[in-house]
Amino acid sequence: MELGAEILKILNKTYDPNSMVETKFKRYDLAFKTDEAGRPILLFMGQKDAEGKIKGERYARRLKFGENGEVIKDHWDNKGKATQ
Predict the structure, then answer these.
(1) Is the pTM of this model over 0.70?
(2) Per-residue pLDDT tens over the stretch 51-84
(3) What contacts 39, CB < 8 A, 6 or more positions away?
């Protein structure tokens, strides 16, 4: 499953650095970890269970920067099934 434009809009914002952010999107529960700059880098998307863990898909973000700090590559890889 690829990430849609609406979810990418949420993930392209910046949040608190080095934190875990939880939110809802339509019928999905989202939890993502941010890097030192506040960019989401690890995403768990699915349904929360009774213990608060998300069962569903896991995604990792690939960021590649140029010499001047500009972003050269920015895409999300599906890493398969996951439980946060």
Answers:
(1) yes
(2) 888 999 999 999 998 888 888 898 999 999 976 5
(3) 14, 61, 63
DSSP-assigned letter for residue 5? H
Cα–Cα distance, 59 to 3 (Å, whole number):
9
- Residue type at position 49: D
Which amino acid type is present at position 45?
A: M
Please name the residues in contact with 75: beta carbons below 8 A apart, sequence gap of 6 or more. 61, 62
Per DSSP, the three-state class of 40 is strand
- How far is the CA of 40 from the CAs of 49, 52, 67, 72, 79, in angstroms? 22, 20, 22, 17, 15
